[in-house]
Amino acid sequence: MKNLNLKTLKFDHNLDSQVDSPFIENNGLLELNPKFIEPEFLTTWTFETHLYDEQVAIDHFVITFPSRTQLEKYAESFYPFGAKIVEGPDLFPINFCSTNINVPCDLWLHLMTLLMPAGGLVVLCAPHAAGDQKNRFQEERGLAAVHHVAIPVENVQNAATIWQKKNFKPMSDRALDYGSLTQWFLQNPAGQILELIERHPGNNATFDCKNIAGLRLSEIAV
Question: Considering only CA atoms, which of 136, 140, 141, 186 is closest in space to residue 159?
């Protein structure tokens, strides 16, 4: 991922706090702001915003679709604006990793990741089968729901301490660290997932084949 040498966003407190952000906070949950998920915005966005009373950078966030066909159609609209495919599209995780990944088929999904010009990542996903976990998530919260947002940090353990004070609890007993990526899912009482991610420069992946099973399984462990 590119180094983000971005100027700090300035917020006019007399305006709506959701101005120029893809996210709307709704009773502790995140939803997509439809005005700001078009390619014209996301390909020029700095990937900085305001979340849960914190000014944060965004490493990646997830948009869900009813089907892989709709996912790919949405992705095509980004190509004229300089977005690049860095993951997929394919069935995740089994078609992304050569090693045997012990993840139940209920947790599989169609996945594709786009790298935006500013360096941020937009992850697109869709259910792989009727009734699977992703399909149930959509039925429960709707297509506007944000499954998770990942925040880049220099030290996952230190960052987790800060977010626990905001009532985000770890979804596994430890962060998953496999060299190029260190990741940890946390969740607030409303059920919103926040990912803390520590990555090596030049790595545009949103997962490592050695840690993906742990991340996916942490969702059902909670």
Answer: 186
What is the rounded distance in angstroms from the CA atom of residue 178 to the CA atom of residue 207?
A: 10
Long-range pairs, 145-148, Cβ under 8 A, ≥24: 145/29, 145/30, 145/31, 145/32, 145/64, 146/23, 146/29, 146/30, 146/31, 146/32, 146/61, 146/62, 146/63, 146/192, 147/62, 147/64, 147/193, 148/61, 148/62, 148/185, 148/192, 148/193, 148/194, 148/195
- Summarised one tens digit per residue, pLDDT across range 110-155 is 999 999 998 999 999 999 999 999 999 999 999 999 999 999 999 9
Contact 88, 62 (CB under 8 A): no
Q: What is the pTM of this model?
A: 0.88
Residue with tokens 């260190």: 182
